[in-house]
Amino acid sequence: MAQARPRTATKLGSKPIDPVTASVIQGALESIAVEMGYKLMRMSYSSIIRESEDFGAALLDAEGRQLCESRQSTPLQSGPIPGYVKGMKQLFAERGETLQPGDVVMHNSAYHGASHGPDVAFIVPAFIKRKLVGYSVTTAHHLDIGASAPGSCGIVDSLDAYAEGLQFKALKVYDRGVLNKPLWTMVRDNIRASSLVVGDMEAQIAAARIGADRFIELMERYGQSTVEAAGDALMDHSERLMRQAIQALPDGSYSALGHVDGFQNDPERQDLKIKVTVTIKGSDLIVDLTGTDKQIDDRPLNMPLEGTVDCAIWLTVRSILLDSAVHGHIQQNSGLVRPITIVAPKGTLVNPNFPAPTIARFCPGNIVADTLMRALAQAVPTQVSAGVGNLKVIAYSGVRAGGHWVHMDIHEGSYGGRAGKDGMDTVDTLYANTRNNPIEDIESHLPLRVLRYELREEGAAAGEWRGGVGSVREVELLEDGAFSVEGDGHMFAPWGFEGGQGGKTSKLLFRPKGGGEQSLPSMMPNKPCKAGDRMVLVGTCGGGYGNPLKREPARVASDVRDGFVTLESARADYAVALKPDLSVDEAATASLRRARGG
C-alpha cells in the first residue's frame, strides 16, 4: 500500500498571500495549539498527561490538513491527528452522518487513523455561519480503556482488537451541544478508574473547544480566505524545505533490517523482522517496508499504518533531514509529509488486517524508526545517531475500597552516539518523546515506593562518540496489586556505527518479598504481586559512533571518573592509559594507540 500527498496552490483569490501576513497567522495558529496543550495538561487528572505529556493538540483546516500542533505534544500523539479526522470522515460517510455546530466526536479506532485504542481523540469541528472551516483536536493516552486487564499497556496476550478495550468509532459524545448521556454512562461503567479517565477525557474536550473558539476568532479577525491562504502558504513552505533537504541527498536505494524481541518464550512470535528500503529520486523519498514479517493474528505487536508506522517514518525523516539544531524552528504541518511515500504490504506487521490486535504497537514502531535511520545512515552518515535503546512501559494496578488505581510508568531508553556528540542518556526515544514521572508525584499519589533511580553504570558503548546509557529504577509495591510490561531490547543490542561498539540490552528483574530473583521477558501480561515485591528495570544503552581510538583521551578519563567507562574498558576499547589519580598517562596512551594503529 502506498501513501502520497498532493501539492496544493498558495492563493488568495488570484494573488499570492503576502508572506508577512502568512507569518503572523502562523504564529497565531501555533499559539492556539500551545494554549490547547497547556490547558489540557493543567486540567488533567493522570500523571501520564499531566507529567509525562503523552498527549497531542492540533488545528486542521476544513480538508483535514494539519496547520499546526502544540509543541508540548509527543509526535506519536499529534502526528496521527490528520488520520483521526480522515477516519472520522470515512465512518461518517459510511453511516450517512454529518457534523453540526456543537458536536464533539470521540474516536479511537486503530483501523481508522488512530494510533491504538488507549489514545482517544476528541474532535471539535469549527463552524462560521454553519460552514465548516476546520477542526480542533486533542488526543491523549488513557490509563484504562476497558480491556481484559488493568492499564492500557502490557495487554500483550490479547487475541484480537475486541480484547483490547472499548472501540469508539467516531461517536458523538456531544450532539449539537447536547451531552450523549447513555454513551457517557457506558464509558464510565466499562472502564477501571473511571473518575480519573473520564476526568482526563473532559479535560480533552474543554481544551479542544478552546482551540475551536480561538480558530474561529482568528478567522473573524483576518477573514476566512486570508487564513485559508496562509495555511496553504505555510504547507507549501514546509514542503519546499523538505524537498530541498531530500534533493541534497544522493539518489539511490538504501536498505536495513531491524529486529523486534516479540515474545521471548514463543519461537514463532519472537525475533520479528522489520525491513526498510529508502529510495531517493530527486526531491521524492519512498520508504518501502516490503520484506517485513507477516502480521501476528493473535498478539498485539501489529502496527496501524496510519497512526503509528507513518508517524514513525515522518518523524525520523524530519529529525534527520531538518534537524532543528541546524534549521531552527520548522513549521509542523501536512506540507512536510507530501514528498514522502510509504509502501507497506497488507497483512504485515506494518499494515495489518482487522481485527489483528495493535495495542502494543509502540515498541515495534520504535524499531521501524530506528531501522529507517539505519538505512538513511548510508546516505547521510553525519546526520544520524547509532542504534537507539528502546523503552519499557509498566502498568501497575490494584484495587482499593474506593475502586481501581492504575499507573503507567515509562522507563526510558537512550540514544546512540552521533557525529560530534555523545548519545543522550536516559530519555524517551524517537517518535514518543514523553517525560518521566517525578518520584515525588508517584509516591504521593500511588502505593508505590521508588527505592532506586540512577544512571546505569559502565554501560556506555565505546565509540569516538559514546552511546547513551539507560537508567536503573527499582520500585516496591506497598499494597497487593499487579503489573504488566510492554517493552523491547532484551534480545538485540542497539547497533554501533562507523566502528563504534554495539550498545547493551535491557533487562527486567522481579524480586519477591520473600527473596530470590526472577528474570522477566520484555513482553509480559498482567502478573499479580504482593506488598513488598519489587521490580528492577534496567534500561537499554545506545550504540557507539565512530572508531573508539579517535576519542579524545581526556573524554575517556572523564567517563571513567563518572562511572560510564571502567579502567579496563578505557585501556581495552579506547587504548587510553590512566594514572592512579585517573588523569591521562599521555606517554602510555600514545604507545597503546600506536600499537593499535590509532
Task: Note the topology.
Elements (H helix, E strand, L loop, with lengths): L1 E2 L15 H25 L3 H4 L4 E7 L4 E4 L5 H4 L2 H15 L8 E4 L11 E10 L2 E11 L29 E5 L2 E2 L1 H9 L4 H29 L1 H24 L4 E11 L7 E12 L2 E5 L16 H17 L2 H4 L12 E4 L18 H15 L15 E9 L2 E9 L27 H7 L2 E8 L15 E7 L3 E7 L19 E5 L6 E3 L2 E7 L4 E5 L14 H10 L4 H8 L11 H11 L2
Parallel strand pairs: 11-12
Antiparallel strand pairs: 1-12, 2-3, 2-6, 4-5, 4-7, 5-6, 7-8, 9-10, 10-11, 13-14, 13-17, 15-16, 16-21, 17-20, 18-19, 18-21
What is the distance, rounded to the nearest whole angstrom, between the alpha carbons of the first and last residues? 48 Å
Shape: globular
Percentage beta strand: 15-25%
Number of helices: 14
Number of beta strands: 21
Average residue pLDDT: 93
Number of domains: 3
Main β-sheet description: 7 strands, antiparallel
What is Rg?
24 Å
Read across the widest sheet, the strand sequence of neighbours is: 3-2-6-5-4-7-8
Estimated structural class: alpha+beta
Fraction of residues in helix: 25-40%
- The unreliable regions are 4-14
